[in-house]
Amino acid sequence: MNADLRSTGEHETLLQADDLSKVFGGRGLLFRRSRPEVRAVDKVSFSVRRGETLGIVGETGSGKSTLGRLLIRLLDPSAGRIVFDGRDITGLAQGRMRKLRHEMQMVFQDPYGSLDPRMKVGAIVAEPMLVHGAERSGIARRTAEILEWVGLSPAMAERYPHEFSGGQRQRIGIARAMALDPKLLILDEPVSALDVSIQAQILNLLRDLQRQSGVTYIFIAHDLAVVRHISERVAVMYLGKIVETAPRERLYAAPRHPYSASLLSAVPLPNLRAERQRKRIALYGEIGSATALPGGCRFHPRCFKARLVAAAGGVATTALSKDVVVPSRCTDSEPPLADDGNGHFAACHFPLDPNGAEARDSAPFAAGQSRRHS
Ligand SMILES: Nc1ncnc2c1ncn2[C@@H]1O[C@H](COP(=O)(O)OP(=O)(O)OP(=O)(O)O)[C@@H](O)[C@H]1O
Ligand code: SF4
Ligand SMILES: [Mg+2]
What we know:
Layout: E1 13-27, E2 34-49, E3 53-57, H1 64-71, E4 79-84, E5 87-88, H2 94-100, E6 104-107, H3 111-114, H4 121-131, H5 136-149, H6 166-178, E7 184-188, H7 196-213, E8 216-221, H8 224-230, E9 233-238, E10 241-247, H9 248-253, H10 258-265, H11 272-277, H12 304-312, E11 317-319, E12 325-327, H13 328-332, E13 338-339, E14 345-346, H14 357-360
Parallel strand pairs: 3-8, 3-9, 6-7, 7-8
Antiparallel strand pairs: 1-2, 1-4, 4-5, 9-10, 10-14, 11-12, 13-14
């Protein structure tokens, strides 16, 4: 892995992924049955510090959920290594992994789907404690405590999930995940299905819980505004790769990867006037298929910067079509995730300027490119 991506300094590393990969499909056990290979996560390396929140963003299909499931071994990795709390858990048998799972929990987008509709809320929250052998006498008290902690009344323990609103159901999901006081919580789009006002309540609740318990979050979402609200560091994924990672303020003020800049330029601004005047950076086409990844930099078919660099001249170029020309470097060689010396990593041969001007002004359209965000 890129060693610099590991946490250093004051915070201790809680979780570390080294060259983690997941390939779905391919040749099955029956030799002749072969499905197309999907490289959902492709040699991803990063670490998370104890007590911090790492946001993971990217379009649909970029591999965020697969990565989250790999990290807590709900899926087995095809390659790579996961170290959790100083322990290599990559090859841990599922039985031993189950014992460890109280330390690492996951919250899903659809709390209704992950809550058994036949169980009362109290039993749903208590179940992980029972499974992990907590003393029965203490479970009822702890269940009431946790329900209060997430803003629900202990009396609600007697009700069923369908009697609750979406936001309340997500509180129940969080209560269940927090019941065993985990060290790590992976939140996979936890507020995507909720109204904006309820989203804010759940995000505030998560912050409070973190402040009180010291739990570490990996917060997965496609909404960059939501991720900004809660994360200290952000990683941007594209087709199975982390293409940029940086402290939140740096990434949002001066993204260095063209993909991040395009995504950020599409985030609506709260001020209507500013929103009307803002320039959106072109993001050409749709995210490709993880079964047929483009060579070189996998973002090259959609990248505005590659087109600008080719149009400026002075580099060897490759024509993708009659109208689209990009640097040959972008089609031929995969850019490494490189540090700018300040803990800001980007995987791009021609990163945007570190002051953010290139991402802010209209330079991306200087070569007559479309302003439409497709
Ligand atoms: N069990 C599976 N079998 C085959 N392919 C899969 C499987 N799970 C995910 N994929 C594929 O892996 C890629 C990454 O999917 P993943 O669900 O991790 O993306 P995501 O970033 O979480 O997307 P979304 O924002 O829609 O939740 C996609 O191409 C998806 O179709
Ligand atoms: S390497 Fe080339 S195609 Fe990839 S993001 Fe950078 S400029 Fe764009
Ligand atoms: Mg997902």
